[in-house]
Amino acid sequence: MPAVVLIGAQWGDEGKGKATDLLGSRVDYVVKFNGGNNAGHTVVIGDEKYALHLLPSGILSPGVVPVIANGVVVDIDVLFEELDALVARGVDVSRLLVSGSAHVIAGYHRTVDKVTERFLGKRRIGTTGRGIGPAYADKINRVGIRMWDLFDEKILAEKVEGALDQKNHLLVKVYNRRAITVDETVEELLTHAERLKPMVTDTSLVLNRALDDDKVVLFEGGQATMLDVDHGTYPFVTSSNATAGGAVTGAGIGPTRVSGVIGVVKAYTTRVGEGPFPTELFDQWGEYLQKTGGEFGVTTGRARRCGWYDSVITRYATRINGITDLVLTKLDVLTGIEKIPVCVAYEVDGVRYDEMPTDQTAFHHAKPVYEELDGWWEDISGARTLDDLPVNAQRYVKALEEMSGTRISTIGVGPQRDATIQVHDLIG
């Protein structure tokens, strides 16, 4: 049975939570392998809406084992806030596993994140201020704190002292903030240690044994391809590998284990935060997509920037991730638009780019080259097969499939779990 990676193929917020939830009944494990609580998933089940930030979406599927793997940075306070909120709504969270090698977000990470972003001014990245970047920086600088460290107070104090040594100089002398003490940080981190301990384990071993036993494991990426620290629109990116390769290092499995990669795309494009966005709309259509699509961040509440579908970045995402299937979401949002532009290439200083320019300056100045497709007026929220869609909606899907370089296997026509058209099986 397969190990399947599911990633965002744009700038995030594509509907990965719904895609994961759709597969829930056929999956044994759902693994979060990167990021932290800096991005969220919204899952609608019947009349109930769930907003998840740190937890894998699979926690809502009965029988599924949700896993927070080693590539994630964990804010323990947020973890337990989410768990308690789900328990209050009758969700069983007892199966959750957390990697002992996952790094911990401490209070000083959040402080550094916020003051640094303010200090950057107009050069700001647009972070969420939740300490994700500084926690990853400490991981790379080898002064990070891991889950295992919370169960040895002496080791924890030593590591916190080492991490704060340089940061306090920065906070006091550069940012004019007070120094953070070792004791207050250790006390904060130990608050949930005993409750956390039964969840913490070697998740890499668990997952490899599950695959040996022919279990279905879904690796759920946070953020998206265009926010990947290596392959995204650097420096306006996240601090982890949000592409399919990140599942291998972020969960501790071998690359030969992966049998398929599912990419999730909206029928248009959105972006949160700073950075270039070639198809961004500043007119009534941008406002229309934002309002009709409910484009506001699950985690931050920030309004998302909106634009037309960009087939250039989808082709790029297909290549970078080895995408085998696309899940197209929010097709229903486009209903009622007479002519729908789709970006098929870029123009930079008179030169046409059919593929993604990796030069930062070129991408920043890229102008979209559009083709217009005929729209439709019919309500498509009840469609459950491709033939149920209006002819022009079918043509739109087919055109996107041809432009994007891989097949569209699932189409979302509404926010509900069952508002979905299944064209091809996502798990072969």
TrEMBL record:
One of its GO terms (biological process) is IMP metabolic process. It is found in: Cytoplasm. Mg(2+) binds at D13, G40. Keywords: Cytoplasm, GTP-binding, Ligase, Magnesium, Metal-binding, Nucleotide-binding, Purine biosynthesis. It comes from the Bacteria. Pfam families: Adenylsucc_synt. Its cofactor is Mg(2+). One of its GO terms (molecular function) is GTP binding. It is an enzyme of class 6 (ligase). Substrate binds at V298, T299, T300, G301, R302, A303, R304. Its EC number is 6.3.4.4. GO terms for cellular component: cytoplasm. The active site is at D13, H41, K139. It catalyses: IMP + L-aspartate + GTP = N(6)-(1,2-dicarboxyethyl)-AMP + GDP + phosphate + 2 H(+). Binds 1 Mg(2+) ion per subunit. GTP binds at residues 12-18, 40-42, 304, 330-332, 412-414. CDD domains: AdSS. Gene3D superfamilies: Adenylosuccinate Synthetase, subunit A, domain 1, Adenylosuccinate Synthetase, subunit A, domain 2, Adenylosuccinate Synthetase, subunit A, domain 3. Pathway: Purine metabolism; AMP biosynthesis via de novo pathway; AMP from IMP: step 1/2. InterPro entries: Adenylosuccin_syn_GTP-bd (IPR018220), Adenylosuccin_syn_Lys_AS (IPR033128), Adenylosuccinate_synth_dom1 (IPR042109), Adenylosuccinate_synth_dom2 (IPR042110), Adenylosuccinate_synth_dom3 (IPR042111), Adenylosuccinate_synthetase (IPR001114), P-loop_NTPase (IPR027417). IMP binds at D13, E14, G15, K16, N38, A39, G40, H41, T128, R142, Q223, T238, R302. Plays an important role in the de novo pathway of purine nucleotide biosynthesis. Catalyzes the first committed step in the biosynthesis of AMP from IMP. Homodimer. This is Adenylosuccinate synthetase. It comes from Luteimicrobium subarcticum. The lineage of its organism: Bacteria, Bacillati, Actinomycetota, Actinomycetes, Micrococcales.
